[in-house]
Design a protein that fits this description.
Blueprint lengths: L7 E4 L5 E3 L10 H5 L11 H59 L2
Antiparallel strand pairs: 1-2
């Protein structure tokens, strides 16, 4: 009853029959008895990982755009402030000149 059973599985290109490896019934070989049982497969939430990565990239993009707006905003603010200072300086000089002309009676 422990005789190996050969089963023909087909023919090779030369026309010779091919056989499956012999199967022994009865006691398991020593090599199979010494192996450890397989560990269960751990399921990973790949969808959550991908969604987290997409949200991270989106957050970094929004942060980069916000920083760019702040930097460009400060540059525009500095230009507007410089223009306002120049305009106020001209206004003060003109008013001072008019005041001196008024004081002299011209």
């Amino acid at each position: 009853m422990t005789e190996p059973v050969q089963q023909q599985i087909g023919y090779d290109l030369a026309g010779n029959p091919m056989y499956a490896p012999p199967v022994q019934y009865g006691a398991a070989p020593v090599a199979q008895q010494a192996t450890q049982p397989l560990q269960p497969i751990k399921a990973h939430p790949w969808g959550a990982y991908i969604a987290g990565g997409c949200l991270g990239v989106l957050a970094l993009t929004v942060l980069a755009i916000a920083i760019a707006f702040v930097v460009f905003g400060f540059a525009i603010l500095a230009a507007v402030l410089a223009l306002a200072v120049v305009a106020l300086t001209i206004c003060i000089l003109v008013l001072r000149s008019m005041w001196t002309d008024y004081r002299k009676g011209r």
